[in-house]
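does this look right to u?? zinc ion version
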Amino acid sequence: MEPLITGPFHRWTAARILPGIALAGLLPIAASSASAQQAAEPQLFSQSAQAVLESNFTSPNLSYLLLDASGKVLAVRWPTPPNLAQQAVSPGSLVKPFLAIAYGEQHGGRFPTVRCLGTESRCWLPRGHGNLGLEEAITQSCNAYFLELAAGLDRQRAAQTLARYGLTGPPVDASAANLAGLGDAWKETPLAWARAYLQLVNEQQSPVQSMIVKGMLESARRGTAHSVDAALGRNAALAKTGTAACSHTPQGAADGFTVVLYPAARPRLLLLVRVHGVTGAESTKVAGAMLRAIGAGER
Ligand SMILES: [Zn+2]
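got this back:
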């Protein structure tokens, strides 16, 4: 496979512009040249980020989407077939947080403790995760946990919940496994997935969303997305991984997905990546390196 990361990182560019994007949201825009410059900074950042990513991450195996906190696209490289239906992707376990929100709404915000026995529980970790609740299940992306949630879900009410996040949801005849991100029945466009994550993080004052966000923080620290903190620093970001059946021709072993929100405390950037031929955990390394390259993780 081709190397996913090539060339030097242009950190100087991003180091100058990342503070600008933070300021731009906080400062009133007044009619002075200094303020006009600040107002122009987000666009400068977008252009620089796009240029840095284009020159350093050239692998044809990589697709990505970089958004600001408002959901605006800052940089993108994602093959877009003309048929809208073909643009939709099944990102494996990236669906799990939204399954959890739908479940929470139908069960008064109460979540079970589930015992994951590994292979016999249809989990990706052969020896199993043991007993876990929602937060740890997000961190470990435990299949057994979310299969249990999916089994107890009213599909029609779930569709209403998902619509609030801009998601169409899986077809009505989808299996519980599909609802948990196994198989490829549940498809949304990359932009829809990314914006749904922004909304979820914006709602983290709500109890269920708060548990999910904590699970994503821990995922970046020690879970399936731990390569994110390795690249950006401890507690730097929120992250979730997904491993999907490969949708490419010729077919690879898997497509790895990662969503990262940075910085963790108040995300200004969302990066969604898909890496052909690797697992979600592997794709996380690329996501971390991309965010480093545009200035994240610097102090
Ligand atoms: Zn498990």
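Residues 94 and 242 are 5 Å apart (CA to CA). idk if thats expected tbh
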